[in-house]
Specification:
single chain, Jelly Rolls, TIM Barrel, 8-stranded parallel sheet, 6-stranded antiparallel sheet, about 25% strand, about 450 residues
Length: about 450
């Protein structure tokens, strides 16, 4: 591919739904349901509804905890592989309305959590599994698609705005021992018609998953990937180590915006199991995951799991609250806005001035189109202490930056490179050794089209 081809890739932009979704950054997935009661990670679809009895469940507590943990949203497992529905559905009896021991069969956790999220100022999303081990129509084709679309219609019309719908990628045989070919086009069209602002993740066209309970970060994380990845190229999958570099896309001509969501559980599994009480990720592990996701052009969805009574384990609560305090400590201020100023190698016009970068809004800096190594200088009157640099690209107009360097003055006041980065995208957090300096230079050394930066902070 010639240079013009890479500019085509740089011109691919996110949809309005994807752009809004990217702003949520860090949020939670509450995995809760019949699996919690039985201690299974994957239920078999035969557990009796009478066994569902979370006596002390309070969704207001769930939402308050998520807020205190620093999360911006919650995604809830409305139906897992076992087929048990955690709302008052008219499509099946295998649901909360068949739980006489709990709220007289009138409980609706989806409704309660949606309301709790609204009160707490959190966005609300849903996880729904197309695979169903209980439903008798599973494996029959259209009859099951009709059933599943009925479930989707209830969830997407009765519970307010949904920011994300997670369709699980896994599929297996059902109660009759047969598999089901999901009519994904039908599902997607229905979701779009009922919730036009909602992104579809997992088995969806809007957001891709990291592909497992663990996450290995890529050297370059591109939101723009070859279209063949979504259409089933076996050589380019969710877990491929390279999805968008020049080497990977050099022969491609068709691309799409397909950003990454890093979804991993807080514990060894997604659902609560007492045997996993001490498998919780440490604060340091969460910090690394945050830098490798939110800090590397992805969103971070952390799985949190209440116990049989509907309560979160005290160890998880303690770790997540401490992690939230660390986030505020590291990113609750911006040295540039408080005591610094910005200069640059040049701007395309006054409209794209470098001063736009002190506030995180729709304005951005853009150098002249013929600039070969444009740079930005952060300047202080006196040396300041810092260890984090945050950059955000103007992804509204695509992802362009391929490589950059961070430079600091040495003892002789000559600039030296202390950090080399690749992609920026929605957000890049550069972890620097603790430094004290009166000047920082960021040089953009490689890009597919003229760089556009919308925000910068030093912390």
């Amino acid at each position: 591919m010639k240079e013009e081809g890479f500019r085509i890739a740089a011109g691919v932009v996110p949809s309005a739904q994807q752009l809004k979704w990217q702003q949520y950054g860090y949020y939670g997935m509450i995995s809760f349901g019949m699996n919690t009661m039985t201690g299974a990670e994957w239920g078999d679809g035969f557990a009796a509804p009478e066994s569902f009895w979370p006596e002390h469940l309070d969704t207001d507590e769930w939402a308050a905890f998520a807020k205190e943990a620093g999360m911006s949203a919650l995604v809830f497992t409305a139906k897992h592989f076992d087929g048990f529905c955690l709302w008052q559905t008219e499509m099946t009896d295998y649901s909360l309305k068949s739980c006489p021991n709990w709220r007289d069969g009138k409980g609706d956790i989806v409704a309660d959590l949606a309301a709790s999220c609204r009160k707490a100022g959190l966005a609300f999303g849903l996880y729904v599994s197309p695979w169903d081990k209980h439903e008798k129509t599973y494996g029959t084709g259209k009859a099951y698609d009709d059933f599943f679309c009925g479930l989707l219609k209830e969830l997407l019309t009765n519970y307010g705005e949904i920011f994300e719908l997670w369709l699980d990628c896994r599929a297996g045989t059902g109660i009759n021992g047969t598999g089901q070919q999901f009519d994904l086009d039908r599902y997607h069209k229905l979701i779009r018609s009922l919730q036009p602002d909602c992104v579809i993740a997992g088995l969806g066209p809007d957001v891709r998953w990291n592909g497992g309970n663990r996450f290995t970060p890529r050297r370059e994380e591109w939101s723009v990937v070859p279209e063949r990845m979504y259409t089933g190229d076996k050589k380019l999958t969710f877990v491929s180590p390279d999805l968008g570099s020049r080497k990977t896309i050099k022969k491609d001509e068709s691309f799409l915006w397909y950003p990454l969501e890093v979804g991993v559980p807080m514990r060894s599994g997604w659902f609560y199991n007492k045997e996993a009480d001490y498998s919780s990720k440490t604060k340091d592990k969460l910090w690394k995951l945050y830098l490798d996701s939110v800090g590397s052009n992805a969103n971070f969805m952390l799985g949190i799991s209440p116990d049989k009574q509907g309560k979160f384990h005290e160890v998880d609560v303690s770790i997540l609250k401490a992690f939230s305090k660390d986030l505020k400590l590291h990113f609750g201020y911006n040295l540039i806005a408080e005591r610094g100023s910005l200069a640059c190698s040049g701007s395309l016009s006054e409209f794209y001035d470098v001063k736009n970068l002190t506030e995180d809004n729709d304005n951005f800096w853009m150098p002249p189109q013929d600039a070969r190594a444009p740079y930005i200088d952060i300047v202080f009157e006196e040396p300041e202490l810092f260890d984090k640099l945050v950059l955000k690209e103007n992804i509204r107009n695509g992802q362009r930056i391929e490589a950059f360097e961070v430079m600091l003055p040495d003892k002789k006041n000559k600039l030296r490179t202390v950090y080399q980065g690749t992609t920026v995208g929605s957000c890049k957090i550069c972890s620097l050794d603790a430094n004290k300096a009166d000047r920082v230079r960021i040089v953009f050394t490689s890009f597919r089209d003229t760089p556009q930066l919308k925000f910068i902070s030093l912390n």
